[in-house]
Amino acid sequence: MSTPYELSAKYYDDAYAVKPDLVDLPFYVDLAKQIGGPILEMGCGTGRVLLPIARMGIEIHGLDNAPTMLGILRERIQNEPEQVRSQIALHQGDMRQFRGQKKYALVTIPFRPMQHMYTLEDQVAALKTGAFHLDNDGILALDVFFPKFQLMDVGIGEEMLELEWPARSHPGRIVRRYFKKDAVDKIHQVFSATFIFRTYHNETLVSEETERIKLSYYAYPQLKALFRLAGLEAVEEYGSFSKTPLDNTAKEMIFLLRRAT
Fold this sequence. Notes:
This protein has 261 residues and is α/β, with parallel strands linked by helices. The chain folds into two domains: 182 residues, Vaccinia Virus protein VP39 (Rossmann fold, 3-Layer(aba) Sandwich); 68 residues. It contains seven helices and eleven strands.
């Protein structure tokens, strides 16, 4: 039986290393520099954001529910110098339920974990986990994508080539990731899709693997209501990782939150 996100974990680092519009890392690194540690990253995955922050000498703890992701991260940590390893602690747990013993100056939920929360109860629970772990002046930072409602029904059932990269374990082979939107549930604001990973050698297909995914999407007023339900309030909000305004041109919805007073 496969474990959650097994294929995503297998290909995660190579795939997102070549994703041209993945530009969130400088934003979260700069925020970590500005606020300092300790930091809790919810949904830390294989450490794409966590490790660069730890390398700056900032204490950071990672939380993730996928053992496959954490397994890869633990291997990566073992290859880091002791001064980096000493800054890191990992927790396997559900972001809707996790309650640690520590409070943090900064809690982050970077790169879409909130879009794997599909119900009102789950969304509020995840935000309350973040709020619970904030110290008195702590900041919770998160991002979700700005939904393109005009495209929701476009391309259902069609495969789209998203990314390709060289297969490290097999020189001469190329892995291509295709995305296929399967269905859209506009009432619950969730769409389902399939990632298709195809490996080619000299343009001959040698393997194909698939993984189903489901993502929720949010409207701005909905997010503001969720924050209020979780006892949070926005102190800053942006429409991109370059800190442009959150307006009709936005590609992202990025928030810095604190406990409501």
